[in-house]
Amino acid sequence: MAVYLNGNEVEESQALDSAAELLNRANLPLLAGLMTDVAGAEAAVTLAEEIGGVVDHASGGGLARANRLMREAGSTPVSLGELRNRSDLVIVLGKKPFEADPDLLDKIFPGKKGLPRPGAAPRRLVTLGAKPKKLPDAIEAKVIETRKTDLATAIGMLAAATRKHPFGDTGKALPKELADAAEMFREAAFSVFVYSPEELDEPVLHVVLDMIRSLCDKNRSGLYTVPVRGNGDGVNLCSVWTCGLPMRTSFAHGDPVNDAWRFDANRMIESGEADALVWIDAFGEGKTDAPKGLPTIALAVPGAVKPDAADIVIEVAKPGVDHDAALYLAEISGLGMVKAKAGGSGLPTVADVLRALSDRLKTTEAA
User: Fold this and answer.
1) How far apart are CA 218 and CA 5, in angstroms?
2) Starting at the edge strand that comes first in sequence, how are the strands of the sheet with 249-250 ordered?
3) Could you give the C-alpha distances from 301 to 15, 24, 35, in angstroms and in order?
4) Which of 43, 50, 95, 315 is disulfide-compatible with 354, CB 3.0–4.6 A?
5) What is the rounded CA–CA span in Å between residue 281 and residue 270?
6) Quick one: average pLDDT of 255-281?
7) Cα 348 to chain centroid, rounded
8) Do domains 3-59+230-366 and 65-225 have the same CATH topology?
């Protein structure tokens, strides 16, 4: 196990002592990134409660939008199994679903016969705002790129076409490719819209939901949310059952308080409100770097954070690879246990390190 203090390798006990001192000096510590398994998330929320801190995930913005959408407008969620086996028309909105899961289309269209589907139409695919590198074989696919407009406007146009309404004040005819796609939706027995909460803003999501509900007047339609990176969905669920609230929750005044704007980690760092950071990246996906500008303790898999990129760097094991881990699995649209591969790294888990840090803090407080 490699542990670094100010870029120099030290013993684990020395790093934990320094980490405890750093957090003891903080007025408003922040536990962010939180790209970890369920056990790590539970330990992080517990530690935040003990020290009066704030928790936020690296994909906190997308999670917050999905949370508000469900809370304020409801939704018509579809599992990956339903999407793969029952839908006859799939529309993928934007680029993020393909970035989040490069094998997405292979999962949706596995090339083998699934469960009985409603209607007699063949399976079809529409992509709006992205051109996949590879389209599935033997599937009718319609690729609609948005070179002349943005994705949000294209979705608004599509919603208008689906309802056979003019778009905007001019009443001009909608682009033919969108009108044709809308006709496909009205004819489909079970259409599913696929999106990433990290890409679409809330007003756009409400437009998508309204479109789905209009289609449900005659047939079935639903929404499939691509899981966010770093086990964000699993961490979010863990936060809910641990303290009753999702990500972007503060324990600064004792009882947990959730606010998607106030407790945005990046905003709190930029404004100077947070004065210490515990950054967690146990997956090392290389898409998010630890924020800079305040004292930082980084818990990360080897290579994810440079030894001198934070005040304290502690290398941790990778969930589902180095140790058994409960993770959110798209295949079951829920939490499942992923067994470790043979010959793990021997590194401590995120939960191990956070619990050890919690014990250090309690010892310091008692003294």
Assistant:
1) 63
2) 8-9, 3-5, 312-315, 296-300, 276-281, 29-35, 54-55, 249-250, 257-258
3) 16, 25, 11
4) 43
5) 20
6) 96
7) 24
8) no
pLDDT in tens, 188-216: 999 999 999 999 998 999 999 999 999 99
Domain extents in the chain: 3-59+230-366, 65-225
DSSP 247-288: SSEE-TTSS-EE-TTTT-HHHHHHHT---EEEEEESS--SS-
Stronger pLDDT, 236 or 175, i.e. the higher one: 236
Give per-residue pLDDT as tens, 104-118.
999 999 877 766 667
Give the pLDDT mean for 242-252. Answer: 96
**Is residue 303 predicted with pLDDT exceeding 90?**
no
Q: Which residue, among 322, 329, 330, 328, has the nearest Cα to 350 in the 3D structure?
A: 322
Those residues with Cβ within 8 angstroms of residue 60's Cβ, 6 or more apart along the chain or in another chain = 32, 232, 247, 248, 260, 264, 265
Minimum mean pLDDT among 33-47, 124-138, 171-185, 235-249: which range? 171-185
Strands 8-9 and 3-5: antiparallel
Homologous superfamily (CATH) for 65-225: Dimethylsulfoxide Reductase, domain 2 (3.40.228.10)
CATH number belonging to domain 3-59+230-366: 3.40.50.740
Cα 258 from chain centre? 18
The rounded distance, in Å, linking the Cα atoms of 74 and 206 is: 10
Convert the pLDDT of each residue in 134-164 to its tens digit: 888 888 899 998 877 889 999 998 998 888 8
